[in-house]
Design brief:
heterodimer; A: alpha/beta; D-Maltodextrin-Binding Protein, domain 2; 14% strand; B: MetI-like fold; two-stranded antiparallel ribbon; 14 helices; 2 strands; 72% helix
């Protein structure tokens, strides 16, 4: 009896070991295909989901020897997952990220990005992308990531509410924007909405006011900490203006709302404006908003620069399948895949061979064309321009000013104190 | 006349007893070793590692260098980190309130539901259910309750014509946000403590209560002089568990405010986490965690020692 039990135990252990071995070999052993993992943001709307599904199926059909295991997360969940996993065996082969110093730059600095020089040579990617997107690839010294997309952020507004408030044209100066906000208040309309529980939503207002008050050169010097936040008068002016916006024009209860809860007010016509990225066109359509009644204009900073970000897909140095990962990235930026994204989602292509066709765009998408075409450079969201710790402090000060707990005149000095202590 | 007989000194432990004690330990060791090993590997070692890291600067990425900086992280959190003191103050407030409000309500509920009431099992279950819900689900539910546009306060304020009620920013006003989150914590935690108290109440001898009543004690005197002393072991457990659970409060804060607005609902456990994983300052994060550990040990260990002495008496 004992011998039988012992044999059964050995057989069971053997089967378990074989099973585990099969698991550890992944799908590689089962189907003969190599599996790579890809981490990205969750697609929030049906059009994006459909586009992604078509692109993924297209890649796997044309590369039967490579399978892609996709993991999607929310904005903050994605950042945290990458911060936890990069550099470990749990890191994905490929991940999507914002390319700016505060997020993508931190990942690169931490060794989370494989130098892709040999793949740029192999696939001739340098001729595929424009100079502005390529400059983001080389900004940290090596060849980091492959451009994924460029987004602009502007002020989305409800045309009917503007009309109701007697606003006949979109503002071209910051002063006009403030006048319009006053007109909206006078008409009993909430001028602008943001959600405060995710700090980066309200940050967009402060970033733009800072740009409007300081101008491009000083703004860039500030976010790269080359200028002193306590000494630049425009910083105090910006925080004072920001404080006014939060007290007079911002939606009620903003501090308790998430970005999606606040945006629901815009969808319902309970708020007239919000600063969102060009991806918001699809979000509006997904929420059954009549986009013909929505307009978009660039926040009038007086610089002509576009507020936004550039994103890239990175291969991790810990990837065991960098060649397959590069093949995947080559497909994602191919004309075929970029055209799917453009046609279904309206995503601005990073592949210069793919051009936006105005005849296929809806009225809202079309409004972005001149904004992108006329932009005189890009200034990034400050949570991507500042370091992680600086961003956390920037948000704290932003919220203290917004909730009337810190004198705007002291905000710049408070932030500079933190920078000096770093 | 009687001769004084000196009392005999207590006999020293005999050699055979010492041997028996040693052999008992040797017998127990193989049985305890696996648990001891697991405890050392999964609890003690990470604790020491956390303390070690508090003396280093490290981004937390594998392969990134760890630079020894001595007490620099501690100096920074005590002298330069504006959020640390807010987090410490909030943690203290949270712990003190936790030891008063939910405990009192739990005890009152337990005493009430220990009586032969109609449907008391249904009430016991109802009060216990919030305790089994995931904190993040509780957080979502209470976020909805507090929503300034369609939450309960807003609805009641509109329905009864009380605009001041509609205007309260339960989670957005930094003066009340912490207490708003704490209300959710009370709702979630009273049931679990109530069950522990109910279990303790079963140990109270009905004869003792009966005797006190015959002696003329009123309900409060019975509770104060019979029930409460009998509940002392349960009280110790509930107090320690509540203290430990409240000093490391994390999930409800994350789910409801994320530490905001403007870090005004920040607590030590969450700030340690955000410094480590959000800001990639593992040294600072672990220094905060070490402070949290020391505070916990400084309070829990003497308290347990004191209660043990009380019981020996």
């Amino acid at each position: 009896m004992r011998t039988k039990r012992a044999v059964a135990a050995i057989v069971a252990a053997g089967m378990l070991a074989a099973g585990l071995a099969a698991c550890s070999a992944g799908d590689d052993a089962g189907s003969g295909a190599t599996t790579i993992t890809y981490w990205k943001l969750t697609d929030a709307d049906d059009a994006s989901k459909k586009a992604w599904s078509e692109i993924l199926n297209g890649f796997e059909d044309s590369h039967p020897d490579i399978k892609v295991k996709v993991e999607e997360r929310s904005t903050d969940g994605h950042k945290e997952a990458l911060r936890t996993a990069l550099g470990t065996s749990g890191a994905p082969d490929v991940y999507w990220s914002w390319a700016g110093p505060g997020i993508g730059g931190e990942f690169v600095k931490a060794g989370g990005s494989l130098d892709l020089k040999k793949y740029y040579d192999k696939y001739d990617w340098t001729s595929r992308f424009g100079d502005s997107t390529l400059s983001t690839v080389k900004q940290y010294g090596q060849w980091d990531g492959v451009p994924s997309g460029q987004s602009g952020a502007g002020v989305y507004y409800n045309k009917e509410l503007f009309e109701k408030a007697g606003i006949t044209s979109t503002p071209t100066t910051y002063e006009e924007l403030v006048e319009d906000a006053d007109k909206l208040v006078a008409a009993g309309i909430t001028p602008i909405e943001f959600g405060g529980t995710v700090n980066w939503h309200l940050m967009r207002l402060l970033d733009n006011i800072l740009m409007a008050q300081c101008g491009s050169d000083t703004f860039q010097a500030l976010v790269t900490t080359k200028a002193d936040w306590s000494k630049e008068k425009c910083v105090t002016a910006a925080f004072e203006e920001f404080h006014t916006w939060t007290q007079k024009y911002l939606t009620k209860g903003w501090a308790s709302l998430s970005d999606s809860e606040a945006n629901a007010l815009f969808f319902k016509g309970d708020a007239a404006m919000v600063i969102e990225g060009s991806w918001f066109d699809n979000v509006l359509r997904a929420n059954d908003v009549d986009t013909s009644k929505i307009g978009v204009f660039l926040f009038p900073t007086g610089t002509g620069q576009l507020y936004g970000d550039v994103s890239s897909n990175y291969i991790t140095p810990t990837s065991k399948h960098p060649d397959e990962a590069a093949e995947f990235l080559d497909y994602l930026t191919s004309e075929k895949a970029q055209k799917i994204s453009l046609d279904l989602v309206g995503a601005r292509p990073v592949n210069t061979a793919v051009q936006v066709d105005p005849t296929k765009e809806d009225s809202l998408d079309k409004q972005w064309d001149p904004i992108f075409a006329d932009a005189k450079g890009l200034y990034e969201f400050n949570d991507q321009a500042l370091s992680l710790a600086q961003t956390t402090e920037y948000w704290r000060i932003q919220n203290l000013v917004a909730t009337d707990e810190l004198d705007p005149a002291d905000a710049g000095a408070e932030f500079q104190k933190f920078i000096d202590q770093q | 006349m009687t001769a004084a007989v000196p009392s005999a000194p207590a006999p020293a432990p005999s050699g055979s007893r010492r041997r028996r004690r040693r052999s008992g330990f040797a017998t127990a060791l193989p049985f305890l070793a696996p648990a001891l090993l697991a405890y050392a590997v999964f609890v003690v070692a990470p604790m020491f590692e956390s303390v070690r890291l508090s003396f280093f600067e490290w981004t937390g990425f594998v392969g990134a260098p760890q630079e020894f900086v001595g007490l620099k992280n501690y100096i920074k959190i005590f002298t330069q980190d504006a959020v640390f003191w807010t987090a410490l103050r909030n943690t203290v407030i949270w712990v003190v309130l936790s030891l008063i409000i939910p405990l009192t309500i739990s005890l009152a509920l337990a005493v009430a539901l220990n009586r032969p009431l109609f449907g008391r099992n249904v009430f016991r279950s109802m009060f216990y259910i919030p305790g089994v819900l995931a904190s993040i689900a509780v957080a979502n539910m209470w976020r909805w309750i507090y929503n300034p546009n369609y939450g309960v306060g807003e609805s009641l304020g509109t329905a009864f014509g009380l605009p001041w009620l509609s205007d309260i920013q339960w989670l957005g006003d930094q003066k009340i946000a912490l207490y708003s989150v704490f209300a959710a914590f009370v709702w979630q935690s009273v049931g679990t403590n109530m069950v522990l108290f109910l279990a303790g109440l079963q140990a109270v001898q009905s004869e003792h209560i009966e005797a006190a009543r015959i002696d003329g004690a009123n309900a409060w005197q019975v509770f104060r002089n019979v029930t409460l002393p009998a509940l002392r072991p349960t009280m110790v457990i509930v107090t320690v568990l509540t203290f430990i659970g409240s000093i490391k409060v994390f999930d409800l804060i994350v789910g409801m405010t994320g530490g905001g607005p403007a870090q005004q609902t920040q607590v030590l456990a969450l700030w340690s986490y955000q410094q480590s994983l959000g800001n990639h300052q593992y040294g600072m994060g672990n220094a905060i965690a070490t402070v949290l550990l020391l505070i916990t040990l400084l309070i829990v260990v003497p308290y347990l020692a004191w209660t043990a002495r009380q019981e020996e008496r």
